[in-house]
């Protein structure tokens, strides 16, 4: 019987323990990770942040919190190629460099502990933050305010000039959505780094968290192909074919399944 993952226990508390869940995901990739140590570290960081915040109402402290993190040397990891350490939460706390999502997870936990209202926004390619009711968004990497024009420019940079800003890009992301996004990030980063067993852990978590879709099954099928597991690859390709609504995609999936059927069996 498969053990219930620790991150799922944290996700299902009321309210969800998002930071602890993200640490538990990191622990799946680093068996030496001591979650209690990093929970103490975030509490220590909260004290450092609080000491530098102005005397303002909580609703006005989100941007100062992010700027204070900048002062404490938390910045976006701009190293290329981006490595998994930019998404693994304990490595981000250790290095003070991370992806926008990882920096946002730290900011959200600090805001929770300091009772500062702050929400995540599931903006494509670059997670953003929002103070409920505000007319702007906040960049978790810098604290910069982003208005509609800024969001259009950011969308063009991360998604291409063909994308039009719409309401779906500005939706609030709950804990479930953030863990799904984190899992997809890690899957991509581990796969690009050639760490296919690690990517497989992330792909399986994505399939648990996301509604059934062809794309996620194809991602896991590609990982199984890299790991030379044709039976498992076939399973995911068959599921992808059932879920696909694109005729060209369905043709490609059928062709790959035909190749697998013709391959000699291993004994």
List the helices and strands and how they pair.
Elements: H1 6-11, H2 18-29, H3 35-51, H4 62-71, E1 75-76, H5 89-95, E2 97-98, H6 100-114, E3 119-121, E4 128-130, E5 137-138, E6 145-146, H7 148-159, E7 172-173, H8 175-192, H9 196-209, H10 214-226, H11 230-243, H12 247-262
Pfam family, one: Transglut_core2
Organism: Aquipseudomonas ullengensis
Protein name: Tetratricopeptide repeat protein
Helix content: 55-70%
Principal-axes geometry comes out as globular
> Could you tell me the radius of gyration in angstroms?
20 Å
Q: Total number of β-strand segments?
A: 7
Pfam family, one: Transglut_core2
Family: Belongs to the UPF0162 family.
Organism: Aquipseudomonas ullengensis
Domain Protein SirB1 N-terminal: 37-183
3D architecture notes:
The chain has two domains: 6-173, no CATH class; 175-262, Alpha Horseshoe (Serine Threonine Protein Phosphatase 5, Tetratricopeptide repeat), CATH 1.25.40.10. Helix content is 58%, strand content 6%. It is mostly helical. The model has no long low-confidence stretch (mean pLDDT 95). The protein has helices at residues 6-11, 18-29, 35-51, 62-71, 89-95, 100-114, 148-159, 175-192, 196-209, 214-226, 230-243, 247-262, and strands at 75-76, 97-98, 119-121, 128-130, 137-138, 145-146, 172-173. It contains twelve helices and seven strands. The strands form three sheets. It has a three-stranded antiparallel beta sheet with strand order 4-3-7. It has a two-stranded parallel ribbon with strand order 1-2. Residues 37-183 form the Protein SirB1 N-terminal domain. It comes from Aquipseudomonas ullengensis. Pfam families: Transglut_core2 (PF13369).
């Amino acid at each position: 019987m498969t053990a219930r993952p620790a991150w799922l226990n944290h996700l299902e508390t009321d309210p969800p323990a998002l930071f602890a869940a993200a640490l538990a995901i990191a622990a799946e990739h680093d068996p030496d990770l001591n979650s209690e140590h990093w929970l103490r570290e975030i509490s220590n960081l909260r004290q450092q942040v609080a000491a530098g915040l102005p005397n303002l109402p909580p609703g006005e402290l989100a941007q100062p919190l992010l700027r204070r993190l900048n002062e404490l040397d938390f910045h976006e990891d701009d190293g290329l190629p981006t490595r998994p350490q930019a998404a693994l939460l304990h490595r981000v706390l250790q290095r003070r460099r991370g992806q926008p999502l990882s920096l946002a997870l730290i900011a959200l936990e600090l805001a929770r502990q300091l009772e500062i209202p702050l929400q995540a926004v599931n903006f494509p390619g670059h997670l953003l933050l929002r103070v409920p009711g505000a007319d702007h968004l906040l960049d978790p990497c810098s604290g910069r305010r982003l208005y509609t024009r800024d969001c259009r420019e950011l969308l063009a940079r991360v998604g291409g000039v063909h994308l039009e800003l719409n309401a779906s890009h500005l939706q609030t992301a709950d804990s479930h959505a953030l863990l799904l996004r984190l899992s997809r990030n890690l899957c991509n980063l581990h796969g690009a780094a050639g760490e296919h067993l690690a990517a497989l852990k992330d792909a399986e978590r994505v399939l648990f968290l996301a509604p059934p879709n062809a794309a996620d099954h194809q991602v896991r099928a590609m990982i199984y192909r890299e790991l030379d597991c044709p039976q498992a690859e076939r399973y995911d390709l068959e599921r992808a074919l059932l879920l696909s609504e694109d005729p060209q995609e369905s043709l490609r999936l059928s062709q790959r399944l035909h190749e697998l059927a013709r391959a000699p069996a291993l004994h």
